[in-house]
Every structure is written in structure tokens, then in C-alpha cells.
């Protein structure tokens, strides 16, 4: 993220904002907010980067609620320090543990924070109780899903009718198979509890895309993928099947995604 402020002024009070600020194996964090509350999904970044993002997006004064998808360090690494110095409620599955303040949420249930309803749903990954999230705000819906080895019917049903879909597109299969990773790591990534390939991501998106959906491809491997490759594979798959959508982009490891706004 650039050092300068991003202008989020000039919008109506009843506006929903979305921005991924980091995406990849070095750290993940997504921000969703309105005029009173900030929902944070995963915090695998440093406290400095988080605070700098809050400042540049002019988010001071909002109540902060952090939801953790699973315990891998690129999703939870910044939580112990940040939650100590930044006032926030931390929500995670009961199976996760830590020395920081935390609350738990129920699988397949929902939790209301201000104008938001946060729903967690099970995903297949090699972690303790990993989940994806759908965040509902009035008549709007944002879904954030990464770190899954396959796309289940439960995932598809959970992400339907999303206005914004942030969805994993981790690797190009050929790049992974011919790359430098140890064979055991390749097998893990390709397994049903690993990560989604570009083609798997495209197939899932094709089942839920709508004319007005904004799509963000996330958790791209820096070793086994490239933004242009992921975009080409996913867009080609969708176009060959006449699947329509509003926009598509990739989220960067260091700068994240574009800033999105949705009106009530």
C-alpha cells in the first residue's frame, strides 16, 4: 500500500467498503467496513502495516472485529502483538488457541456485529477447523475464501449471490509440477486439503458468478503462479462458458486489491 492516504470521502453514510491489503504466503488481511464498524478477516501482517493501512484509509474511531479463518502463520501471525496494542475483538474457532484475548464463533452459525452479519462455513484445508466467511450488510454480501484444496457444495452454496467474491487462485498446475518445490510440498498443495489451482478457482467461480459480481483472485503463489497467468486462465475459462461478471483482478502480496464500494 502506498504511503499516501486513499480518499474514501464523498460517499454516502450508507456505503460498504472492501479492500484486501495483503494476499499470499507472506501474509493475508482483508478489511470490510462501514461508517461505524471495521471487520478484519485474518491478520497475517505486522502491526505497523495494519496501523498504516488504518491510517491511510482513515478508519480510526471504528469498532474493530477480527475474524480468523485458521491458525497458519500467514493468517494469524500479526494477532498476538496487534491485539495487545490495538483495541479489537478477536473471533476464532474453539480449536484454535493463543495467549491473546479471543472469542469463539460457531461453525455454520452467524454472528452480528453492528450492521454486519458474519457467517463462517467449513473449507477443506490442513488446519484445525478452517473456514471461509460471508459478510452480509443490509442487502449486500461479500465472501472471502482461501486456503482450500477443493471446492465443496457447502462452499458453493455459501458464496452464492455475492456482490464481491475474494477467492483463492493459488497456482498454475504445470508451474507447480515443474517447479523447485520438494515433492512432498507439491503433493500437499495439490491435495484435497491444499490449495486451489487457477482452473479449480475458475470452475468454482463459473458456478456462482453474476453480471454484477466483482471478483478478486487471492493467495497467488509467488513461485508457482503469476497475476497475468491466473487472470488469463480464469478469464478464458469463464469466457469460453459465456459466464458474465462485472470485474476481475488479482490481489497482490504487498498492495492487496483495489478499493471497492457498495451502496445500500
From TrEMBL:
Transmembrane segments: none annotated. Residues 26-193 form the Metallo-beta-lactamase domain. It holds the Pfam family Lactamase_B_2. It comes from Thermoplasma acidophilum (strain ATCC 25905 / DSM 1728 / JCM 9062 / NBRC 15155 / AMRC-C165). SMART domains: Lactamase_B. Gene3D superfamilies: Ribonuclease Z/Hydroxyacylglutathione hydrolase-like. This is Metallo-beta-lactamase domain-containing protein. It comes from the Archaea.
